[in-house]
# Entry
Amino acid sequence: MNPKEYKYTQEHEWICPESGNKGKTGLTDYAQSQLGDIVFLDLPAPGTQVEQFRKIGEVESVKAVSDIFAPVSGKVSEVNQTAIDKPQLVNEDPYGAGWLVRLELSKSSELDALMDSDKYDKFVAELSEEESE
Amino acid sequence: MKLSKKTPLNKLHRDLKARMIDFAGWELPVWFTSILAEHRAVRSGAGMFDVSDMGRVWVSGRKAGSFLDKVLTKPAQQLEVGSAQLCLLCLEDGGILDDLWVYCVGADRYLIVWNAANIEQKLDWLSRWSGSDPDIIIEDTSPDTVMLAVQGPSVCQLKNLKGVSHLPRFGHTQTKIGGLSVFVSRTGYTGEDGFEIISDAANASSLWESFMEQGVQPCGLGARDSLRLEAGMMLCGQDMDTSTNPFEAGVGWLVDLEKGEFIGKSALLEIKRQGIKRKLIGFQMKGREIARSGYKIFKSSQEVGKVTSGGYAPTLGVSIGLGYVPIELATIGTDIEIMIRNKPMAAQVVNKRFYKRGA
# Structure
């Protein structure tokens, strides 16, 4: 369910590396299921410089507000306006239509600090176990 | 470490894979499927809530009525059997300890249904004023019973509730649902038609499942909160408490100053005479940011109050809230700002009844 070619953070963001040293980012399926119905996204404007693991925006669900962190450092090259207009896309399709921002990576080696899908699957499975205890 | 209390439906909620959270010391579902879906089910069809966290306290005995008249802000003895009223439990200084429903169930027999918060404090308060009078018997039956709220425009078409569809608003009766003995009232906290049902804890699963079989959507605390807020209903402990008085909280209509002596009456008369300085208002955000409880309210760069409840209003598609502001800013149409993460966001004072059934 978590796409194989993506990389993941412990804060439940994903990045899909693209050609030209770019990457699309978003929130994971686990993140959206924990947040519940998402009703508002506060995302950085194109051109904003972001730093790995630093806060770049906020996501509001009916129940709570959460921070969004940058999976890698770089410059915001594009923001998903469709998701801003229709935040439930993050719930419905977190790895597709519900992507958040596209980054121009400044240090592609930072990707190595992220989890691959196998590791992230395990990470989430453990969290879910703790929850059901 | 204090563990959360579990309602008789706890296992069923877990089997349904509900997301559980702690609320006022109770482990309860915050949602089963999605807050928005559950909210819409109640506005358009029928949804049900496990409200077993609400306290269910019987007051009986020869002096039960006069005792309730002494501690409550509305006359209890005038209630007819089968009727009920919402009223307040106030402290001597007029502060609000709780809002509660009192049902007249028989001669000298009343049922109180109050909020989950501060149950011990409230029971102590009652026993303090009843003393050891043998003619006033106070019995908290909450741990042995279950309480469901079944709410929505189509509740009267449910097989389970057809038999009580004759009940007037706030009316109640002892009856049977699917062979199980229940106490049913036509009350609720969602702004829709609906019923609240109390039964022995042993009947909890059978009742819940029979409603599910009839297509009623299980709903959690999330929708419970968004529905009540949208309908402009206050949550005691959040929108009003012992530090607020009924007039500034906009529940002066729950206080009958014409009736005989009751606890808080002289303080409330004085508060009314002096006039209120602040007021609980409803507001609507101009943007889509969500104002949450505790956020500060500003006017012309000055902090003027705090948000007590806030959230997304699914039926209206806007962000709304309640909060206290000085009386001169309480007029509908007044522009205010809500400080959201250090940014002042525009809002406007609007009628607290954000959503009105059939409007």
Summary: The CA atoms of residues 10 and 245 of chain B lie 36 Å apart. The first strand of chain B starts at residue 5 and ends at 6.
